[in-house]
Amino acid sequence: MTVEPAAQVVGHVVVPGDKSISHRAVLLGALGEGKTRIRGFGRSGDTRATIEAVRALGVEVEDVADDELVVAGVGLRGLHGGAVDCGNAGTLMRLLAGICAGQEGEFTLEGDESLSARPMERVAAPLRRMGADVETADGHAPLTVRGSAALRGVEIEPEVASAQVKSAILLAGLNAAGSTTVVERVPTRDHTELMLEAAGVPVRRRPASVTVEPAGALRLGEIVVPGDFSSAAPLLVAAALVPGSDVTVHDLGVNPRRTGLLDVLERMGARVSVFDRRREGREPVASVQVQSGELVATDVGAEEVPALVDELPLVALLASHARGETRVTGAAELRVKETDRIEAVTDGLRAAGARIHSLDDGWTITGVPARLRGGHLDARGDHRIAMLGAVAGLASREGVAIEGADTAAISFPGFFELLDSVTRR
Ligand code: S3P
């Protein structure tokens, strides 16, 4: 697919429901008492895998509409053992490992080639400390989890700042004896904690840690999923990059642990406004407007990374169009995402004319306030890289041909159509 240059990007849109929250809603709904209705569900390749996963473990899920589900919970220890195909979904595999740790039975969690290359000891090791029997294939999927009815609550500081690892430990903690605490010096997304609180679990939050107590039961009732900030991000970045652009995304999740991109956009000189703030359950929601501006370089370091980890490829694109040198550091985690995103971004943007160099944990980018030439970008089977290619194409002089563009559907089916609807040529 080739994305041609845009004259402007203009419009008001909504994006599908948040992927992180949709995964959690299905997983917690499966462990709940009675039925959980999920509205605003973000249906995508990844979240479809989560629905199929809980079905494979004995949970009924009714598809009410494309964006609405009813999950018939089996209770906190009610899953039966079995094999699960997690597809491309790292969040599913890691959170489910935590859930299975406290169930009786044997669970095998498999993934596709990309997921099978990603590190899994980061969840296996803490779950073993809690008393589960977890095997990995040399640190990778497939995982075999033999759950235990006698998990112990522990205090753990994971080696990496990861919401997936934190969530796996907290979910195991629901079925453990005593409290379970995860220490995190740099805060990561807190959707799990917020949803557990809403389900009636005692959760204690401190600035650098979170503790859950054994739950007894989860009662969710209804969950309304806000729009996915990470799916809105390509549209917002396109608006910042293409002169004369103005895009507003409504009903968007603006959890502050997800919206680091807005701070970066403001620092770089785009015009950002956030209005109509409200809450859906415990999650903050708003409308977000971005208008183009003259962009200048900025620095992004480790402290800021978790709040924009999935948006860093887009930050590299912004930096390629910003006057001065941008340094992104502390982002080594990008090397173990769906692909090595540090190399995928360096190769893709350089081929389009950017002056970008990879570091072990990020990039240096020397920008010029002009359009890149454009060229050819390989998505490497990674949805975020495919969407990066699309935005790079809009902002370029000659367009960008994306190889493997359909992988965008892993998180955002309909992405190209929505982007097209706001593009003026
Ligand atoms: C996610 C956490 C992040 C993020 C991923 C979704 C989640 O991963 O990159 O897309 O839903 O918890 P890490 O926890 O590995 O940083």
Which key terms come to mind for this protein?
425 residues, alpha/beta, 4-stranded mixed beta sheet, 12 helices, globular, binds shikimate-3-phosphate
Description of the molecule:
The chain has 425 residues and is of the alpha/beta class. It is 30% helix and 28% strand. The protein is built from 12 helices and 26 strands. A 5-stranded mixed beta sheet has the order 18-19-17-2-26. It has a 4-stranded mixed beta sheet with strand order 4-5-3-16, with helices on one face. The longest helix has 13 residues. The chain binds shikimate-3-phosphate.
Please provide a brief summary of the model.
The protein is 30% helix and 28% strand. The longest helix is centred in the first third of the chain and has 13 residues, at 19-31. α9 (312-320) runs parallel beside α10 (341-351).
Proportion in β-strands: 25-35%
Major sheet: 5 strands, mixed
Find the structural class using helix and strand composition. alpha/beta
Terminal-residue CA separation: 17 Å
Helix content: 25-40%
The count of helical stretches stands at 12
Which consecutive residue ranges, at least 5 long each, have pLDDT under 50?
A: none
What is the multimeric organization of the chains shown?
single chain
The residue-averaged pLDDT reads: 98
User: Radius of gyration, Cα only, in angstroms?
Assistant: 21 Å
| Neighbour order of strands in the largest sheet | 18-19-17-2-26
Bound molecules: shikimate-3-phosphate
In total, how many beta strands? 26
The shape is globular
